[in-house]
Amino acid sequence: MNNLTSYVVQTCQTLEQLPLWELQRVADAIWEAYQRDATIFVCGNGGSAATASHFACDLSKWTINPQARRVRAIALTDNVPLITAWSNDQEYADVFVEQLQALYRDGDIIIAISGSGNSANVVRAIEWGNRVGAVTIGITGRDGGRLYRIAKIGLHVKNNFMPLIEDIHSIVCHALAVNLGRQIEASLQPVILQAKAVGGQQ
């Protein structure tokens, strides 16, 4: 088995081990956030920062339905001037929590993505979220780290190789965005059917 084949096989094996009940808990929390018109904040570092930005993009755009309210989703990784300002003037560990203190509203949801589960800035964001009563979610890898232990809802990818962890995180985020879009569409069906029935009676 060559290196490429081995990598693909390991990726499939890791995905098969994903705890689907944890994934469902995350999906339920996101759906409930949408129903109450809450904002979904996402953060991460390095490759996980890219995943956070991609996830917020998909939550915002992939889920659009012309007959439904749009999803509120913000990646705390996207404002580079603000991130560098907080890093320079204070410390890098505060780049996410300082943004949350300005943007968070009661009932919002905070999703932190970290392969190690130990990045200080995502841990602080979740700790702060827990203190103010936010719905907090930690998407992790390796042994889960502190993030998995303190988040109210956790999703743990059981692998120690960072590229594989990040691959599964990306798949998970795509699955969650697609699922939310389909839930929004399904929620409109009774309204559409009722409108058709009323129209047919006229």
Brief characterization of the structure:
The protein is of the alpha/beta class and 202 residues long. Helix content is 60%, strand content 13%. The protein has a single domain, classed as Rossmann fold (3-Layer(aba) Sandwich), CATH 3.40.50.
Task: Please describe the structure with a list of short key phrases separated by commas or semicolons.
alpha/beta, 202 residues, globular, Rossmann fold, 8 helices
Description of the structure:
The chain is an alpha/beta fold and 202 residues long. The chain has one domain (3-201): 3-Layer(aba) Sandwich (Rossmann fold), CATH 3.40.50.10490. Helix content is 60%, strand content 13%. It has helices spanning 3-16, 20-35, 47-61, 80-89, 97-103, 120-132, 145-150, 162-201, and strands at residues 39-44, 72-75, 109-114, 135-140, 153-156. The protein has a five-stranded parallel beta sheet with strand order 2-1-3-4-5, with helices on both faces. α7 links the parallel β4 (135-140) and β5. α1 (3-16) packs across α8 (162-201), α2 crosses α8 (162-201) and α3 (47-61) runs parallel beside α8 (162-201). The longest helix is centred in the last third of the chain and has 40 residues, at 162-201. The protein is globular and about 50 Å long. This is Sugar isomerase (SIS). One of its GO terms (molecular function) is carbohydrate derivative binding. Residues 30-186 form the SIS domain. Keywords: Isomerase.
